[in-house]
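Example 3.2
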Amino acid sequence: MADAPLLEVKDLRTSFRTEDGVVKAVDGVSFTLAKREVLGIVGESGSGKSVSMMSVMRLIIDPNAKFEGQVLYKGRDLMTLPEEEMRKVRGKEIAMIFQDPMTSLNPVYDVGWQIAEQIKAHEDISDKEARLRSIELLTAVGIPNPERRIDDYPHQFSGGMRQRVMIAMALSCNPEVLIADEPTTALDVTIQAQILELIKKLKDEFGSAVVMITHDMGVVADIADRVIVMYAGRVVERGNKREVFRDPQHPYAWGLMGSIPRLDRPKPPRLAAIPGSPPSLIDLPEGCAFAPRCGQRFDRCSITPELTDKLGDGHLDACHLTPEQKRDRRDAVINPGMAETA
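Structure, written as tokens:
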């Protein structure tokens, strides 16, 4: 039991009925999360990252939504828990930092009241104790003058400070799993670095496992232990950070990495760009969903590839190319123009 994962997601599927058809937002996602581990989930907007974790938290209440699969937290299937039991898990044992702190915080209540409300929802403590705990949390996330600022409203904080308030709220009950949904989006690079350092520090101090949702491969490289790459609602690559960055197997991952400027190599004429746009989740192409945008496509791409371990080391990918073919071709994608400048 000591080696059992803290969170295990098995074949999670989330779809929405619409007038135009069924949107397969999450299509067979599986992963595990161990204690004190940071799992990075990366992909373009619309790839299913946020919907996957919203489904894990059971925060989607759309009557047209359909959920399948298992979400095992400490052996309990969260998908089958009664709503009253799920409320006890949500916020206390599994907490989420939402993407936009301005719309996630209530503008008509001061931040201290909102943090205290979260604490009192799960613990039987007095208003005074909840306020003192809120001040401690604001101190922990680096809010200056927390005794005064606890009575301020969200609009009185900068974007970075509002994100810190959201982190304080998420950590208020010492959750074992912390889901961070693009916590550095729309923040300048200095504040981004501070937020990432803060999450790493708090992970060590609180002992939480972290799921980091982002479209930024640089953020994943900085903070994650393992990486999941998603495209069109599916996992197309999964492995530990070193494997994914040193030996990426899926052409979509190559495109994401090619968009990152490298300081350790000659400057290329231009950064790589993935052509085209993500497909409609109502009308996915046959076979590999990435094939219409992939410069490596061939006849076999008309067959949907399975997520398999071709290298035999736990590094999985969903691409028909052999590992040898990938190594021969990917450098031209990740480092365009290098051959001409060499």
